[in-house]
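TOKENISE THE FOLD
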Amino acid sequence: SPEHVIREIKEAKEKYRVSSITFWDDNFSLDINRAKRICDLMMKENLNLKYSLAGVRADRLDDELLRKLKESGCTSVSIGIEEGDEEIFKYVGKGESLEDIRKAVIMLKKHEIFISSYMITGLINSNYESFLRSLKYVESLKISAHWNIAFPLPLTPLYDWVQKNGRFLMTVDEGFRHCMTSKNPPVVFDTPDY
């Protein structure tokens, strides 16, 4: 609950004397009313913390939420765009559009909240040209991007697609172990096109 979140923040502030926090939540704004309540309680409790959100959906933001985020101390937001090429983006299956993302970026900039994005290269049907289009899309938004390499987990459409259209360069288990022990993400598969 929002009240429990605030209780945890207060405990962390008292115990560790934190002056800033990051919400490592894949989708802080999924329930917009819950997100607004957390902001309201942060202001009501006078927490005076700077914070960032490590994950929001572009289609789950509105002007009121962004105003409350800014007023309650939010300094930055990361959006999971994943892919900026329209043809490849449809395979992400998030139920939002690249236009939703563009509108969210405009709103976030209006509220002077720093924006970064999470991007993935190597999704279904990706190739070098689609990567360049994705790069241009992010550049057009004038935001920073953190790039990751697609990882084909078993029982996912990407895994099935790689089995049919590409080749595994290592087992998924080897790739996962490499992810956990290295700063460099592994390239688990390739295709004739990429």
The chain has a mean pLDDT of 94. The longest strand covers residues 74-82. The beta strands are 20-23, 50-56, 74-82, 114-121, 144-149, 167-168, 189-190.
